[in-house]
Write a structure and sequence with these properties.
The chain is built from 20 helices and no strands. By secondary structure, it is mainly α. α13 packs antiparallel against α18.
Length: 408
């Protein structure tokens, strides 16, 4: 908490208490000589003074936890003001080489971390380093009461990093970026160099992810491990009741509902995408339901099941009627009939979340909400920048690259 603000609050409370105590002392001096109506008046004044003191104590107790977020949220908002604007993203998308991209980073928060880099892999590491530094600064200046929330965020980062390492081992493609997580650099290197799934699973059992991979065998595929990790993340870590408890314990104001909005929407989006991709890939109803997340926020279970039972994309989206996602996806689904395919629907869903996230992130002045919102927006921005960089390197047409980022 900002010590100046805290000092002022305590000073005002002490001043009010001192004045009340002084009044009480004066009144007690007079009570010895009072009787009858005067005595009644004394007790009325004394009761009022005690009421003021109680009100001051309650007010201070409520204000201090809220004001403890004043400094970190102010800093986070300053960080947010240096995020890349849509105009700058379009400049990046229209670059002819990744060296032009570096020039476009001038004046942004990423400049110190990418300046002088020559290879795309180096630039991507610079972007990841920027997020890591932001995360480290935010954790240090946020009240200790928020530690449970950051433990949840770190757990998600840990899962995302393991998935990226596994994908790299399976495809031979370099790892684009890693999130800040409790896994040490030496352990990550061991995981990268592990030979065979048995050794990989053995290493993972030494981490917080041991419960997530319980039951997997040495002949498990990378896809099976990733599904197990996702299921554990979205069903156990992001379980609705658990999220509410973390928000209640660590947050203030309306953090409980706002955090459910931020992370619950992610869970719903995962289920919508699983259903749509399953239908597009001609999976059966039973197969789709088996891989869907059994955790529901704003997408009721009956609607999710109906999507899994649908025969085509249009029918699946129709099953969303009555939910917050229906109008956005119904409009986008019309594009699938124009040769745009499933990508237009998924992009519309991502845009919906991005817009919702920006609204939620700045819906209250203090608390965990602005912090959680900023981290989520920052992650989205870095994914977009990485996609643009790789699109340029692979010679993807500019108009296609422009479609990679989520418009504001």
């Amino acid at each position: 908490m900002n010590p100046v603000i805290a000092g002022k609050i305590i000073f005002l409370a002490a001043e009010a208490a001192a004045k009340a105590a002084g009044t009480a002392a004066q009144a007690s001096g007079a009570v010895a000589q009072a009787s009858g109506p005067e005595l009644i008046a004394f007790w009325v004044v004394a009761g009022a003074i005690l009421g003021v003191l109680a009100l001051v104590a309650v007010t201070v107790k409520k204000i201090l936890p809220i004001m403890a977020f004043a400094y970190p949220v102010t800093r986070v908002r300053a960080m947010g003001s240096r995020m890349v604007k849509e105009r700058k993203l379009r400049e990046l998308a229209e670059s002819y080489s990744h060296r032009d991209v570096i020039a476009a980073f001038e004046g942004t928060a990423y400049e110190p971390n990418v300046s002088g880099k020559k290879e795309i892999e180096e630039i991507e590491k610079g972007l990841a380093l920027n997020l890591a530094k932001d995360y480290e600064r935010i954790v240090k200046m946020t009240p200790k009461s928020a530690s449970e929330f950051f433990r949840l965020v770190s757990y998600r980062y840990e899962i995302e990093n393991v998935k990226r390492i596994l994908e790299s081992k399976a495809t031979g493609e370099p790892i684009t970026m890693l999130y800040p997580s409790p896994l040490s650099e030496s352990f990550i290197e061991r995981l990268k160099e592990s030979e065979g799934m048995e050794e990989t699973l053995g290493l993972l059992k030494q981490t917080n992810l041991k419960d997530a991979i319980e039951g997997l065998k040495a002949d498990s595929s990378v896809e099976e491990i990733e599904k197990a990790l996702d299921r554990h993340l979205y069903e156990k870590v992001f379980e609705k009741k658990k999220m509410a408890e973390v928000a209640k314990k660590a947050g203030v104001l309306d953090d409980k509902n706002r955090l459910l909005e931020i992370y619950g929407t992610q869970v719903d989006m995962m289920n919508i995408k699983i259903a749509l991709r399953g239908i597009a890939g001609r999976l059966g109803e039973r197969e789709i339901k088996e891989i869907m997340i059994h955790n529901h926020y704003f997408l009721p279970e009956k609607n999710a099941n109906a999507m899994a039972e649908a025969k085509d994309i249009q029918s699946a989206i129709a099953c969303l009627e009555g939910t917050r996602y229906y109008e956005t996806l119904a409009e986008a689904s019309r594009e699938t009939g124009k040769g745009r395919g499933l990508s237009s629907v998924e992009k519309a869903l991502d845009q919906y979340y991005h817009k919702s996230l920006k609204t939620t992130a700045f819906s209250q002045p203090f608390g965990l909400t602005p912090i959680a919102g900023y981290l989520a927006l920052k992650e989205s921005e870095i994914r977009t920048l990485t996609a643009i960089l790789n699109g340029i390197a692979e010679g993807v047409p500019k108009e296609r690259i422009t479609e990679m980022f989520i418009a504001e």
